[in-house]
Amino acid sequence: DLIIHVRDITHPETMLQKATVLSVLKNLNLPSRLLDSIVEVHNKVDLIERYKPTEENALAISALHGHGLEELKQEIEKKILTATGKKILTINVNLEGPQLSWLYKEATVQEVEVMPEDGTARVKVIISSSAFGRYKNLFPN
């Protein structure tokens, strides 16, 4: 669904390495949507003072120090959701009914926050549009 190209931005041949990787990927006859959505990651930015990527859409990180990793995670999540046609939703469910069990079977449940005072839960899920449509039909409230 997604290609992430992590480069050592301090390497003297980093641009040649990028060109080589892109050439190999193109020779693999991958779908153009996959090649067009590559996430370009520049690693080791902690070794270059005040580093700013000059390449469009490149993310600057330092894996060693954790700099930029949250932004990378968000970008990956966004691209994966777009590529797979899924979305992240928070759904309120009645714990006395079958909704939570259904969500565990048909979606990816990420978090469940139980509200014991009213017997409900807030459920954060990754779900396809079609599965969410089925959910709304089965559980209209």
UniProtKB/TrEMBL annotation:
Residues 1-84 form the Hflx-type G domain. It comes from the Eukaryota. This is GTPB6 protein. SUPFAM superfamilies: P-loop containing nucleoside triphosphate hydrolases. GO terms for molecular function: GTP binding; ribosome binding. GO terms for cellular component: cytoplasm. The gene is Gtpbp6. Signal peptide: none annotated. Pfam families: HflX_C (PF19275). The lineage of its organism: Eukaryota, Metazoa, Chordata, Craniata, Vertebrata.
